[in-house]
Write a structure and sequence with these properties.
Layout (H helix, E strand, L loop, with lengths): L1 H15 L10 E2 L21 E2 L4 E8 L3 H8 L5 E6 L5 E10 L9 E8 L12 E5 L8 E4 L4 E3 L2 E7 L5 E5 L1 E6 L2 E6 L6 E5 L21 E4 L2
Parallel strand pairs: 14-15
Antiparallel strand pairs: 1-2, 3-6, 4-5, 4-7, 5-6, 8-13, 9-10, 10-11, 10-14, 12-13
Length: 225
C-alpha cells in the first residue's frame, strides 16, 4: 500500500510539471510559441510573458542636485507622486514614492526613482511614456515670476521690469528653481512688480512698454512693443 501511495504521489508530481503557475497576477502578452512547436527547458525564447499591472511601478529620474532634498523629505513620510500623460495634460493616477536608486548615473547626472500606483482601472500601461510630478515640499511666501520673464546675460540672470511710468528697467535677479512655467525668485523682485514676458530683445533702458493683459491676481505681465 505504501508503494502504491508513493507511485500516486510520484505521478501527481510528474503531472504538476505540465502546469505552469504564474508567480504574480498580471496581464499576459502574445504567446511566443504555437501549438505543436517543440519546446525545451533550455530554450531562450519564453512561451509568453506576464507583467504586473496592479499595482504598477513607474520609473523616472531626478537631477542629482535634488537627491538630498528628496531623500530628506522622504524620511518624514511617503512623498506623493502624480502621474500624467506624456504631454502633462491629463492626470492619470496618484501614488507614492517607493524607492530611490543607490547611485547617480554619471553619464546623465540623474538618479532613478520608482513610484508605485494603484491601477485597477488600467489607466497606466506597461512601457507607457508618462510625466511624473513628485511633491517634495511646499514653498511659502515666495515671489513667483513667469519663466519666460527670466533672461540670461553675461552677468547672470535678469528680468525687465515696468516702472510706474510704463518704462522698461533691467533688474538683476536670483532664481532658486523653475518648474511648470514659473520661477522662484529669491532676490531682485517683489510682489506686485510688473515683468516683461515678450519682446525683450526690443527693449532698452527707459524704453516705453505697452501692457497688453494682466496675469492672475497678484501678478502683472507686459509685452514690449
Amino acid at each position: 500500500m505504501q508503494a502504491d501511495q508513493a507511485a500516486i504521489e510520484n505521478a501527481q508530481t510528474q503531472l504538476g510539471y505540465a502546469k505552469i503557475s504564474a508567480p504574480v497576477s498580471g496581464r499576459i502578452g502574445f504567446r511566443q510559441v504555437d501549438l505543436g512547436n517543440i519546446v525545451r527547458a533550455t530554450d531562450a525564447q519564453p512561451l509568453l510573458t506576464i507583467v504586473q499591472v496592479d499595482p504598477i511601478n513607474v520609473l523616472f529620474t531626478a537631477p542629482e542636485d535634488r537627491v538630498y532634498e528628496v531623500r530628506q523629505a522622504s524620511l518624514k513620510g511617503p512623498l506623493k507622486a502624480d502621474v500624467y500623460t506624456s504631454n502633462g495634460a491629463t492626470l492619470l493616477q496618484s501614488g507614492a514614492l517607493s524607492v530611490i536608486n543607490n547611485q547617480v548615473d554619471a553619464a546623465t547626472g540623474t538618479v532613478q526613482i520608482k513610484a508605485e500606483f494603484e491601477n485597477a482601472q488600467m489607466k497606466l500601461w506597461p512601457g507607457q511614456s508618462v510625466t511624473v510630478v513628485l511633491h517634495v515640499r511646499d514653498l511659502d511666501n515666495v515671489v513667483l515670476a513667469p519663466s519666460v520673464a527670466v533672461q540670461q546675460g553675461q552677468d547672470g540672470l535678469y528680468a525687465w521690469l515696468v516702472d510706474s511710468r510704463n518704462r522698461a528697467e533691467i533688474r538683476k535677479i536670483d532664481v532658486s528653481m523653475q518648474a511648470n512655467g514659473k520661477a522662484v525668485v529669491t532676490s531682485g523682485l517683489a510682489a506686485g512688480d510688473k515683468v516683461v514676458v515678450g519682446g525683450q530683445y526690443r527693449l532698452f533702458d527707459k524704453a516705453p512698454v505697452v501692457i497688453q493683459e494682466s496675469a492672475p491676481a497678484g501678478q502683472k505681465e507686459a509685452n514690449a512693443r
